[in-house]
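Hey L., structure's done. Input below.
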Amino acid sequence: MLQLPSRIRNIGIMAHIDAGKTTTTERILYYSGYTRSLGDVDDGDTVTDFMAQERERGITIQSAAVTFDWKGHRVNLIDTPGHVDFTLEVERCLRVLDGAVAVFDASAGVEAQSLTVWRQADKHRVPRICFLNKMDKTGASFKYAVGSIREKLNARPLLLQLPIGEAKTFRGVVDVVRKEKLLWNPSSADGRDFERKPLLETSDPELLRETTAARNALIEQVADLDDEFAGLVLGEFSEDFDLLPAEKLQTAIHRVTLAQTAVPVLCGSALRNKGIQPLVDAVTMYLPSPEERNYEFLRWYEGDLCALAFKVLHDKHRGPLVLVRVYSGTLKPQSAVHNISGNCTERISRLLLPFADQHIEIPALTAGNIALTVGLKQTATGDTIVSSKSSALAAARRAEREREGQHRPAGGAERPLLAGVEIPEPVFFCTIEPPSVARQPDLDHALQCLQREDPSLKVRLDPESGQTVLCGMGELHIEIIHDRIRREYGLETFLGPLQVAYRETIVSAARATDTLDKTVGDRRHLVTVELEAQPVGTSSAAPVARFSESVSKDLLRASQEAIENGLHSACLQGPLLGSPVQDVAITVHSLTVHPGTSTTMISACVSRCVQKALKKADKQILEPLMKLEVTVTGDYLSPVLADLAQRRGSIQEIQTRQDNRVVIGFVPLAEVMGYSTVLRTLTSGSASFALELSSYQAMNPQDQSALLSRKSGGL
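Output:
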């Protein structure tokens, strides 16, 4: 059942929202023999979109993991969402992938979301291959799409295929490496039937010339990037590139892809069932196996178990199912494991291979594999799992020794965690109420389960009203959480109006002094602190703590953590709107602490003093500024621009993408509530848009005072 690591491929499919990712996945599963019929997103019967909301909306939200075999290789495929509200899902999956397939719409090239996902893959250093999908669509252009990969992604495309025809005339592809044409049988309904023929001077003179030129250019490109291959080309085959064996070229392309100096490009049409089989061949040929990826932390574990829980799903019958990627060692059912992040020991009862909704039980999970575990009740997304606490400590000591040997500063030595997922700050929030007070515990339970699955969903209690507040990444995100609570937990909840998550900062410095003097039992707690709040130029979500020379070093050593806790808690609720305070530095000028004073009292005094200082300073509200990209036909450009001007939008540029115009600009989040409906009406449903958080920017005085009077009027 289990494969050798060299035969495993852990890959993800990533793309813009409508590039055809899920359809591509469906075709791959069909040709690998895992599904008996072809699913279609528009019919709502795809394998990887298995949540009801995904099937209804035709978008992928959760990253379904599917395992299949292809020509002696085991492929673990993760289907990731392309909607900007769910970028955390993508980020989380890139952690566990060894390679990725980036799917592009051949008529649109690189779109806004493709760029975001590509940057995330760069950050995790994931080798990629590109698939230009929808070659059969009107307006599809291979040349344009390749150009946009080169310009917008700053990547070097290696053309391994050329299309035979474009748009309505698209009928197959040319394999540039082997100089063969692949034609799909028009009478075959499912695209399983295709023939591979060598290109001959007699039958295809024009295509052969084009392919030979493309192959020579490919050889030169790869030789520029790979010294070993360059030696081979300049030596044996310098006279005639045609004699160079395809296998030698493929090995060199594999090395270049791994080094991420270039990306292989293939093309096809998933919906018309063309070009998918060669794409899966390319995955097994060019993308790395787990052995070929170098993870720095592995050497500290020395073959002991080290795994990452990268997704939690809730199954009605089995309870929480945790998707785990094993990096080293072996995971077995009925064994106890230690969760470093949660600092707890749990028992795994069963291991299952995921096939979207169906699961096959397995006896063990070895390095490089991905599977579902049953029985982990405490583990949440992003947790690191090892065999025991002592194994974690031994790894920590090895890491510490290595750092000392390299004279690097020791940091986090007690726990060499796999880097957890960076969770973006939510930009929207709204209140959520159960149908009756008696159902509040059920709502709390549902939200707790959903938070374990999705760390970008934050839930907090409003201290003043006692209401539960949902904080999410966008309108769609909150809508889908609301929907899931209804479907999966049978709760008809009520959402309050969506509100924007503002931030606050200060624009002038202010000093404050505070004394806290309390006697609890027979202990006297006495703290006096003097500090100054100042604005900082760089963007910093947490307050920057500084200490002047006059603060005693011994006192600081004993109470620094308590002081910093006080600073952080004071900055959670600002003086204007009760929003988090950012871009602030707090300098502690003097601190006197009576012997025996508890650290909690120090935190409380510092916190109160910071709030005093913030109230004295000149305050400023920061609002989330979104980067907006609207794709619209030329006829509707004017109404779209006029509407954006009313929304306080600033247009950066208007690009031409074949027949469409792409408007790129920035607009405050508060102004884009419900924008999709307005845009649909303005353009008769022909435009699309993508949004992502760009930064927080200061509001102008008029807008700020209007917002404050609205808020105080609404209270």
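Residues 55-63, 408-415 have pLDDT under 50 and may be disordered. The first strand starts at residue 8 and ends at 15.

-- N.
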